[in-house]
What does this fold into?
Amino acid sequence: MILKEFNKGWSNKFNTRLENLFKYFPDIELESVERYKGMLRVRFKALDNEVQDIVDSVAYKIERESARTCEFCGEYGRRKEEFLPEKMCVCWKCHALHGSGQIETQEKE
Ligand SMILES: [Zn+2]
It folds into this structure.
């Protein structure tokens, strides 16, 4: 699970797509995964430039999608920081639910 530290909206939507890259390119390495300005930023390291281009493109596409996907529920969201500990992409419902100043950034089941 690459996205275990993020909430379900993102992990359900993007985790498999990221893991699939290892199926097609077993030699790549996961370099970093972070929430950057409310977006999901994932970096892979490949052994050659062609593969690097492909994995960078997929990672970039997912980064752009994450910028409008609620990290909590996966619905359409926008990046906000009011009442949140850091900039996050949330829908209005989750923002109302979690934006109390004491956000639980990880939902446990
Ligand atoms: Zn939501």
Q: What stands out?
A: Residues 9, 70, 72-73, 75, 77, 90-91, 93-94 surround zinc ion (CB under 6 Å). The CA atoms of residues 21 and 96 lie 35 Å apart.
